[in-house]
Amino acid sequence: MGAQKSIHAGKAKIDVNVDFTHKLCAALMLPPLRDNGNPLSLIIGSLCIKHPNLFGGSEKLDVSWDKGLYDSNILIAYRRPRPEWLAQQSFVIQHSISPEIGVHGLPIDNFSRSGSGGVNLCRFSAGVDLNEPASSNWSSTTSIKFEHVRPINDDGRSISRDIDGFPVTCSGGPHDNMVVLKQESHYAKANESSFSQLSLQIEQGMPVLSRWLIFNRFKFVASKGLKVGPAFFLTSLTGGSIVGDMAPYQAFAIGGLGSVRGYGEGAVGSGRSCLVVNNELTFPLNKVLEGTIFVDCGTDLGSGHHVPGNPALRHGKPGSGFGFGYGLRFKFHSGQFQIDYAINAFQQKSVYFGISNVVS
């Protein structure tokens, strides 16, 4: 249940989306993170303003605001026209607030769900994105941004320590600052019976000031899909590692939808390194409905105790785990709604709901 509206004001376009369905899904799959008694907090929505010719020279301005149950994100992007053979340049400003469940969340119900640990991240970033021209099957993006990260509690007040008294920032103070150089590369190749994808991401914290974070963070995702008769088999491998300065919120969180199903978000573990394997077989039931069976597993490669404050050990997370189950995929004109039923290594059951939209 929701509402969508598009408004044209001159050359600008305004898209408004308000969704009430998330209230039901969240109530079924998540324990309450917090309850402030405000009925508007149970509504999610988005506002997007686009102008295709801001100053008369094909400059594009995009302003978007997204509100979830417990998070919000504001993004402002300004793009100047450049020749196609040059990297496309965007100036980006972003501000977001989101609960930090993956590392500081508290596992409950035999790790099948994660509750609030009282830590939320307020992030501000500003910088430049450069989208390189695609060549063959490869595409890449380079960005350099200033980031300011300020942990807050559920009441919106700045904090420097978690509920156990351990620092939640690398600096030990109420915030962390960093300048991050980021390189992302994507490879994709597909035909009628199979596809292959590879995503590589490298982040480098630049030594601008002595108290700013200096680190190197690497992550990869490799996927392979293969048609098997009327069914489709998909396998993926995700891994990463970080060296240098590190705040707890930069750890790799393992567990949850998109990771190891059967566990709550980050309930398997959080470490300086990770490795996750997902296998899924999808088969058609009718024109709009698909069934799926899956097996997931993941590990922090024994690196959980290298995270400052060792939050995974303090919360009793195992560091490795597996889950298996089955699900349904409902296709509709603008996306897909999925339901997954999973069982983890502790024989605890979980149900996941998800909606993926096709953006025109």
Automatic annotation (TrEMBL):
Species: Nelumbo nucifera
Coiled coil keyword on record: no
Annotated InterPro entries: Bac_surfAg_D15, D15-like
Keyword tags: Membrane, Plastid, Plastid outer membrane
One GO CC term, this protein: membrane
Protein name: Outer envelope protein 80, chloroplastic-like
UniProt KW Nucleotide-binding keyword: no
Stored Pfam families: Omp85
GO biological process, one term: chloroplast organization
PANTHER family: OUTER ENVELOPE PROTEIN 36, CHLOROPLASTIC-RELATED, SORTING AND ASSEMBLY MACHINERY SAMM50 PROTEIN FAMILY MEMBER
Compartments it resides in: Plastid, Chloroplast outer membrane
Domain Bacterial surface antigen (D15) residues, every copy: 53-356
